[in-house]
Design a protein that fits this description.
By secondary structure, the protein is an alpha/beta fold. Helix content is 40%, strand content 13%. Helix 5 (92-105) runs parallel beside helix 6.
């Protein structure tokens, strides 16, 4: 089984303890852990800072990787964290609209082989400046599930999985990657991690 994983720094495997180019070793990233399951091949298309694609270039890139991996049995898309911090006057509705636009502009993504994953929400951010971000994050799963259903895609809410994050409240810890991989493997019926 081939899985194409399209996402942001948590798909890439970014380790905030190591600086801007820091990345967890392959065997500690959730994508690498899935690749350790017998019969599973993983293509990691994670990129630090990635949001739901809105520019023509980003949408063409997504279409291109889907074309290059047209034999993928499953395509996971986990985005939304960076959108929370990038969009001025952020709202869950605006992020969900980006997801809808992605499915509309990249038709090869729509369908049941795609699994849209809502990332865990930040939980330790404090201060009035974060109120809009936290509100949007809390409302996002309900709106993304609708966007997925409209596109005929599946939906998973990683916010329900208790993923440990580093102090930056964004990036998965090593244990977080392992828990994420276990939960995703279970949801996709891939088998047990080695």
């Amino acid at each position: 089984m081939k899985i194409l994983c399209y996402g942001d720094s948590n798909t890439f495997g970014f380790d905030p303890r190591l600086g801007t180019s820091g990345r967890l070793p392959k065997h500690m990233r959730w994508t690498g852990l899935l690749a350790g399951i017998p019969g599973v091949q993983v293509v990691n298309e994670g990129l630090n800072g990635r949001t739901f694609p809105v520019s023509d270039g980003a949408l063409r890139y997504l279409a291109g990787i889907l074309e290059a991996n047209e034999d993928a049995d499953i395509v996971t898309v986990m985005l939304g964290t960076n959108d929370l911090f990038e969009i001025r006057r952020v709202s869950a509705e605006r992020i969900a609209e980006r997801a809808r636009e992605m499915f509309h502009r990249v038709p090869a993504l729509a369908g049941e082989r795609t699994v849209l994953i809502c990332p865990p929400a930040p939980v330790t951010l404090r201060g009035s400046g974060y109120a809009g971000i936290l509100k949007a994050a809390g409302e996002l799963p309900e709106l993304l599930i609708t966007a997925a259903e409209e596109a005929g895609a599946r939906f998973l809410d990683a916010g329900e999985w208790g993923i440990p994050q580093y102090a930056d409240d964004v990036h998965f810890t090593e244990e977080g990657h392992r828990i994420f991989a276990m939960k995703l493997a279970e949801a996709l019926h891939l088998g047990s991690l080695s």
